[in-house]
Amino acid sequence: MGYHNVLAAYDGSKASEKALKHALQLVEGNPGSKLTVAHVAARPSYTFAGYGMILPEGYEAQIKEYETSIIAQAKAKIEHLPYSKVVLLSGTPSNAILEYAKENQCDLIVLGNRGLGPIREWMLGSVSHHIAQQSQVPVLIVK
After folding, report:
1. pLDDT number for residue 124
2. How far is CA 129 from CA 29, 70, 83, 96, 132, in A?
3. Domain edges within the chain
4. Which of 39, 54, 121, 135 is deepest in the core (most CB within 10 A)?
């Protein structure tokens, strides 16, 4: 089965590198297919129950620099594909990816599995697990 509109989640980790490699193979083997690489700019909440946190000077600049670097890495990996692009999404990673896939009629989502382990996954949740459970299109989780 060929996929024509593939969305690959990318955060620069080893798991996302592997996932992007698989997504590239799928798209390269199916001429005319489109690949979108998505990086989610997830900002943690700095306030809770009336308390706040003072961010170190230059924190936002460092985050923007990191995001720019991730976007550049992704662009370099897909620049040879005619129907490809990199997008920067914001929000909770799983929700942002699912929303983008739905709005853009993606027919496959590819992402890495960091392997948090059962306890950490239960405590923290897992982006790949949430996407696999909630997605309306096939999901390829690369280990």
Report:
1. 44
2. 27, 23, 28, 14, 5
3. 5-142
4. 39
